[in-house]
Amino acid sequence: MTRVLMVCTGNICRSPLAESLMGTELKRFGADHAIVSSAGTGAWEGAPASEGAYLVGLEHDIDLSHHRARLLTRNLVRGSDLILTMARHQRARVEDLGGEGKVYVLGEYVGLTGAEAEVGDPFGADLDVYRETFDQLEGLAAVAAERFCEGTK
Length: 153
Hints:
By secondary structure, the chain is of the alpha/beta class. The protein has a single domain, classed as 3-Layer(aba) Sandwich (Rossmann fold). Helices cover about 45% and strands about 15% of the residues. It is built from six helices and four strands. It has helices at about 15-30, 50-60, 75-80, 90-100, 105-110, 125-150, and strands at about 1-10, 35-40, 80-85, 105. Strands 2-1-3-4 form a four-stranded parallel beta sheet, with helices on both faces. The protein is globular.
């Protein structure tokens, strides 16, 4: 069983959406052995998905009603095979917790550089910003899943 961990800050917007999208894409590429989860570097343990993430998820048949935020811990890092963060500062936190060598910024993992490699935080923004974030995550997850599956053959 391979464990993939998606990481953002609060684990209520980007990473729950990324978790769902990555899981769907990995299944599409035949990686039924992969388990995808998410956590946040500054998560308030047990918090529900943000309203914006929840509503945009529903627009795409993703139900985040059962999602509860988890704080990123050393044990989560240790138990993960691949960790994908939304931003560089989150990657640094994962490395601090022992994740060096298995953590990447999601955009860099798929070959992007500079500011384009990071997924901005939509928290507090209007639904259009959440929709843009969703679209960005959807594209990144498709390419990341393909790369992951090619690497595990």
